[in-house]
């Protein structure tokens, strides 16, 4: 191989390595500042999908997490007394945002990308929901989640497996009668929520 070709090859390899590292650092690895910025953007735009993307894959895969995430950004946007532009920093610092319906519990964790860069993301704990039926109809109960403009039947086992933080609305009926509308609001602390169903 000629000296000129060798130099060109070395230059090409250096460009690929530098470009690859730059791509990973700016596009794949998420700095704490970028994480805070993404959270701010999600809250300002009430973008539950973007907010949910800031969490670990396990958290993203929690059943109904899209509904919870959307309600969290709405709550943060509509009710926080802290400036919207500071919410991301508050969360990444491990503090709670003032003025919201509950004190959401989010934790910042990190992982190594390609063994070179540190990438930051959020985690939370899912809260099991235990339904106690005091209508006199035993376990003959239908639970429909009405959050997010949908009406979907959910099982007691799905609820007891835990919900992502946020507000979840339900219409519950037992024994063929409508027992009313209920809601729960997990905070991300992992505590079990007791939902008591009673007759009118």
From TrEMBL:
Residue ranges crossing the lipid bilayer per the database entry: 6-24
Keyword list, A-Z: Membrane, Transmembrane, Transmembrane helix
Native source species: Candidatus Levilactobacillus faecigallinarum
Name the record gives this protein: Uncharacterized protein
């Amino acid at each position: 191989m000629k000296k000129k070709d060798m130099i060109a090859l070395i230059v090409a390899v250096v460009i690929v390595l530098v470009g690859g590292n730059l791509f990973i650092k700016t596009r794949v690895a998420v700095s704490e500042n970028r994480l805070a910025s993404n959270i701010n953007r999600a809250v300002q735009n009430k973008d539950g999908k973007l907010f949910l993307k800031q969490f670990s894959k396990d958290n993203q895969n929690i059943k109904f997490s899209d509904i919870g995430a959307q309600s969290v950004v709405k709550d943060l946007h509509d009710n926080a007394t802290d400036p919207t532009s500071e919410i991301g920093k508050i969360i990444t610092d491990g503090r709670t945002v003032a003025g919201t319906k509950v004190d959401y519990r989010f934790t910042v964790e990190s992982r190594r990308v390609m063994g070179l860069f540190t990438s930051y993301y959020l985690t939370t704990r899912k809260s099991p929901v235990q339904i106690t039926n005091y209508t006199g109809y035993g376990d003959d109960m239908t639970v429909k989640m009405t959050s997010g403009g949908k009406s979907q039947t959910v099982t007691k086992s799905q609820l007891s497996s835990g919900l992502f933080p946020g507000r979840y609305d339900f219409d519950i009926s037992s024994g063929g009668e409508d027992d009313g509308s209920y809601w729960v609001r997990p905070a991300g602390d992992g505590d079990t929520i007791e939902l008591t169903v009673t007759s009118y």
